[in-house]
Write a structure and sequence with these properties.
Largest sheet: 8 strands, parallel, barrel
Strand order of the largest sheet: 3-4-5-8-9-10-11-12
CATH class of the largest domain: Alpha Beta
Number of helices: 14
Distance between the termini: 55 Å
CATH architecture of the largest domain: Alpha-Beta Barrel
Oligomer: single chain
Radius of gyration: 24 Å
Strand content: 15-25%
């Protein structure tokens, strides 16, 4: 998604939490700029499947090798402190999931339409949830092919079935956003996943109308003539087409499952101030004018739950400064969540000296955390974290993400927390060291939503404060009614507290405190 597009917007730039914070004591080696540790923070990563960027790394892998590779990726991110993954499930009108109206992606087994013998999305959801991570299904809405090798497309590919739905631009086929039947089809594709999989979010990236290519023209004049009534400007009509799709997806997703979050990751510049008085102090490409994507309007209308702009520039950049864009987006959230797309992949670029500075991304995190209207980050991409260039993953694991965090709550989706767990007990484990904590399912809250998970806290001889994330022992996305604390030391006295979570991670009041001494 982002890498090939980044080549374009770099060239363009040349010419022209609600967050519950606590304040634990800092270790001596922590960066001085970290003043607080958030208990609520979105810590995401994109796992790109297109052209095998992150997973699977080869189309030659067996199903078991694919599974093992994904487990290694998820384990690495769990150790880093990531609590959400954006898994690309529809790279190009194809599927990384079995219950689909579109053919299997060629990035699985090398041939479009050839299945791997298991359901990758189902597997990924199960394993992410085991590790306390949300899974957001990442869709490319309009891209139908990633290359010009149309002869290799499956006979079941939508470009073969409905060739009149597409235009070719830059050598690839793209859905024509002006056609009502295209919008209906894309909504149904997404609802296949919403209805059949236990995803936490529907996620879309920055590919709306194609990025401009010199000498190329979007062939939608006939569609404009047919459907453009009321618009004397084809550009405004194109923006309207994208607005219609976003509104349709939002209404449909939330009608089918109000607990599923809907978020979009647009290009990092909405509009430049020179183009639009409401824009940012930048001079690069812009989604409003070049992709016909009015992402600010989607926030204003409340259609999306979070915006995740790709701010892939360094702090102080002349054309597009990370710090200026962070401030601009934080002033344009309209009460929705803002997660910042951070460019871990740029550490590997030879010519980008700013990202060769090991403090660049950490300083960006500090800016994010110091802005109360920003609720977290998403990193592009997965392999850029697992490869740990310049020790970025080490920095997250040891400093910034050293304590667990819950995703931020979305009170417009659900503001009713579960009731607290009942009858909590804590006893030395039988036949092994440690402590066994048990509890009973709480009574249903007034919205009658079932409990989705639990948070187990442990304290030494200190004030019971569940707002401090250093006291979180484990976040569990399951309905198990016990937890084995295998890190409890002999001869010590501990105090345990358990809370309940609902699907959108609202947290109950804490249970009574239970003390236990490990013999």
């Amino acid at each position: 998604m982002h890498i090939l597009r980044h080549i374009f917007f770099s060239a363009v730039a040349l010419f022209i939490v609600v967050s519950v914070n606590a304040q634990p004591a800092e270790p001596a080696n922590a960066p001085a700029a970290i003043k607080t540790e958030p208990k609520r923070e979105f810590r995401g990563v994109w796992i790109a499947t297109v052209v095998n960027i992150d997973w699977p790394t080869s189309t030659k892998l067996t199903a078991e090798k694919q599974k093992q590779q994904l487990l290694e990726i998820l384990n690495s991110h769990q150790e880093t402190g990531i609590n959400a993954v954006m898994l690309q499930v529809r790279p190009a009108a194809d599927a990384f999931y079995a219950k689909s109206r579109e053919p299997w992606s060629k990035y699985l087994m090398g041939k479009q339409g050839q299945g791997p013998g298991y359901d990758p999305l189902e597997f990924a959801i199960t394993e992410a949830h085991k590790r306390g991570m949300e899974l957001h299904a990442w869709f490319n809405p309009y891209r139908a092919t990633f290359d010009g090798n149309f002869a290799a497309l499956s006979p079941q590919h939508i470009t073969k079935i409905k060739p009149d739905w597409f235009f070719t631009y830059g050598g690839i086929k793209t859905f024509n956003p002006g056609l009502p039947e295209v919008r209906d089809y894309i909504v149904q594709v997404i609802l296949d996943v919403v209805d059949n999989y236990d995803i936490d979010g529907v996620h879309m990236d920055d590919y709306f109308y194609p990025y401009p290519i010199a000498g190329q023209k979007i062939n939608d004049a006939d569609t404009y003539a047919k459907y453009g009534q009321g618009y004397d400007n084809i550009k405004d009509w194109r923006r309207h087409n994208v607005d219609l799709l976003i509104h349709m997806i939002a209404d449909s997703v939330h009608a089918h499952d109000p607990n599923i979050k809907f978020g979009i990751s647009p290009f990092g510049i909405w509009a430049n101030k020179a183009q639009n008085d409401e824009g940012s102090e930048t001079s690069g490409g812009s989604s409003y004018y070049e992709n016909y994507a009015d992402s600010r309007e989607w926030l204003k209308q409340g259609w999306i739950d979070y915006i995740n702009p790709q701010l892939y520039w360094p702090i102080g950049n002349r054309a597009a400064a990370f710090d200026k864009l962070l401030s601009w987006w934080s002033n344009n959230t309209y009460g929705r969540h803002l997660y910042i797309g951070q460019a871990a992949y740029r550490i590997n670029e030879r010519k980008t000296l700013a990202f060769k500075n090991p403090s660049q991304l950490p300083e960006q995190i500090n800016l994010i955390r110091n802005n109360p209207r920003v609720q977290g980050s998403v990193y592009f991409s997965s392999s850029s974290l697992t490869n740990n260039p310049l020790g970025i993953a080490d920095s997250l694991r040891e400093n910034y993400y050293r304590y667990p965090a819950l995703p931020p709550v979305m009170l417009w989706r659900d503001s009713i927390a579960p009731n607290a767990p009942q009858n909590v007990t804590a006893r030395p484990s039988v036949n092994k060291s440690g402590v066994t904590v048990r509890w009973l399912t709480p009574e249903l809250a007034k919205d009658e939503e079932p409990v989705y998970g639990y948070v187990i806290y442990r304290f030494d001889n200190e004030k019971i404060n569940i707002d401090d994330p250093k006291n979180i022992l484990k976040i569990e996305y399951n309905t198990n009614l016990s937890y084995e604390d295998n890190t409890a030391q002999k001869g010590k006295t501990y105090f345990y507290v358990v809370t309940a979570l609902d699907r959108l991670k609202n947290e109950s009041e804490r249970s009574p405190t239970i003390a236990v001494t490990v013999p």
